[in-house]
Amino acid sequence: MERETLAQYRDLKREIEHLEQRIQRLKTTVIDSVRASNAEFPYQEIHVTIEGEVSPKKELENILALRSRQCQAMALSIERFIADIDDSRIRQIFELRYIEGWTWEKISERLGATNESYARKLHNKFLEEREGEDEIR
To answer: Half-sphere exposure of 38 toward its Cβ, with a 13 Å CA cutoff?
Structure first.
């Protein structure tokens, strides 16, 4: 998996949340009150409550739901990639960097390293080895 794809994880999660909020707003029913009159004499004014949904909303809801599912699938593939990393230290680096959004310095400190670039170097080495394995296949 490429760095650019991994770096999208947090943005994907925010986008999913935003799309779900938009979908919920679309699901609300429109309720209004209108004035009318009796159908027969005496034609007295009455107030009638009407409710319904605007038809183009359903199409937009479907589009937003599709986008949400696509984002969820991408986020899931990133989660799966990280979960499939065998080395615990490397897995922690990827999770803290891409899932939690930590800085390299903070991750290195968490892993007990005094060198702030420690985590980044392990990360880069892992990706380079992984790319080399992919080229061999």
So the answer is: 5
* Single pTM value for the model: 0.71
Distance CA 46, CA 107 (A): 68
Tokens encoding 121:
């170097």
CB 26 within 8 A of CB 61: yes
Contact 26, 101 (CB under 8 A): no
Extents of the domains making up the chain: 1-83, 85-132
* pLDDT at residue 55 in the model: 62
Beta-ladder partners of 45 = 37
Q: Which of 15, 18, 51 is nearest to 33 (CA)?
A: 51
